[in-house]
Amino acid sequence: MSSGGRRRLALVAALALVVLAADAGVTSEYRRKLEATVEMPLDADVFRVPPGYNAPQQVHITLGNQEGTAMIVSWVTPSELGSSTVMYGGAPHKLELRAEGTHTRYDYFNYTSGFIHHCTLKNLKHSSKYYYAMGFGHTVRTFWFTTPPKPGPDAPYKFGLIGDLGQTFDSNRTLSHYESNGGDAVLFVGDLSYADNHPLHDNNRWDTWARFVERSVAYQPWIWTAGNHELDFAPELGETTPFKPFSHRYPTPYRAAGSTEPFWYSVKIASAHVIVLASYSAYGKYTPQWTWLQDELKRVDRKTTPWLLVLMHSPWYNSNGYHYMEGETMRVQFEQWLVDAKADLVLAGHVHAYERSHRVSNVAYDIVNGKSTPVRDQGAPVYVTIGDGGNIEGIADNFTRPQPSYSAFREASFGHATLEIKNRTHAYYAWHRNQDGAKVVADGLWLTNRYWMPTDDTN
User: Fold this and answer.
1) Which of 75, 153, 405, 459 could form a disulfide with 59 if both were Cys (CB 3.0 to 4.6 A apart)?
2) Contact criterion met (CB below 8 Å) for 311 and 274
């Protein structure tokens, strides 16, 4: 080969390396300390029972309709039924409004729940602080929340993004860091208590978990996604009703969203349209979830709620050996729909590590054409796996090698993320690992809206 040919070949090789480097993601070499993931002891202060006879405990709220003008308040009375009434108003000394709730109980193997109350507060004003109280006749407790702003294209809002939380010391760090970062509501992508990791699916661990998170979820809405640890399907214990504890404890506004089941639904919060999907309910063609999602995407109004966010538990894009490709069948069923809808962000849990993708899609493949590699697609969402809340099963430190080109950043650490929507065009996304100070951003980027400003925004 001539010297000129060798120089051209060297130049081509160098350019190829530059292209590959530009497309390469980051596998963070940071590792959390190697201590075991240990559950907090039952006498930990975060599990304490509130004082007073039959005092309401495990208080939590979620949106009660699609528009944010209703709130579902839930709590448990341990000793006797008591009252299902909630008094509420604009000041702690002026609880002039009244709502009557309902109650339920359930048995699970050798466990019987307390009295679980659910009460929907209606006709609330947007962007307003409300105080609310329950426990009348025994021990009254008072809390407060602020309703989200009226849905609109430039309504700012800050979401916390948490998944696979559990109730370990790491879980407590995750929740404390989120509280320090100050979100307005949490998008929770599934796996709450991990009660099923205990002998006989010890449902007392549902109670301890709800007391643990009360410090946040009693004061701001958490939007619930059902994960595999909510299934509690245990025929060996005679328990064959899926999601029994979760369904009794954590209602969702699914009817307001036109859904037939509480596990898939949608809400509109400020400038975001949030769609919750169920990884462990049927989603094949013509199933209720398939039909609902098809109709729901037609109802999304990007001029009013420009940010389209999708929640699920099992990730579609996951380069970790744990739960590898478990979300593939749902991806094949729905990915084209989300790309066509120009969804902005898809959040999942399940894998106990952190990973963020570039904007990619894998919708061209039809089994015979060989186009089976995800490609950059500016109409596609960013995929984030945020199943790193801190649960008892530990960290998922088993990333595949080499890192696939669609993966932008991944790290085997516990933490949480936030999404701060500024207006119709810009939002700031940040992931915080637990080993840093709460305000430190380990992975962050500005996102531009797929409907209003579909620029190349990932790195």
Assistant:
1) 75
2) yes
Which residues belong to the active site?
323
- Which pTM was predicted? 0.94
DSSP string, 1-54: --HHHHHHHHHHHHHHHHHHHHH--EE-----------BPPTTSGGGPPPSSTT
Domain boundaries, the chain: 153-190+263-458
pLDDT digits (tens, 9 = 90+) for 15-65: 333 333 345 688 887 766 556 789 999 999 999 999 999 999 999 999 999
Q: How far apart are CA 48 and CA 333, in angstroms?
A: 44
The tokens 């002998």 sit on which residue? 199
Phi, psi of 47 (to 5 degrees): -100, 5
Tokens representing residue 381 in the block: 């969402």
Rounded Cα–Cα distance for residues 325 and 321 (Å): 9
> What three-state secondary structure class fits 173?
helix
Contact 416, 389 (CB under 8 A): yes
pLDDT in tens, 277-336: 999 999 999 999 999 999 999 999 999 999 999 999 999 999 999 999 999 999 999 999
Q: For residue 227, which of 183, 276, 260 has the smallest C-alpha distance?
A: 276
Alpha helix positions (H), 280-393: 288-299, 328-340
CATH topology of domain 153-190+263-458: Purple Acid Phosphatase; chain A, domain 2 (3.60.21)
Whether 383 and 317 have beta carbons less than 8 Å apart is answered as yes
DSSP 110: T
Task: Show the CA angle centred on residue 436, arms to residues 32 and 168, nearest 5°.
Answer: 55
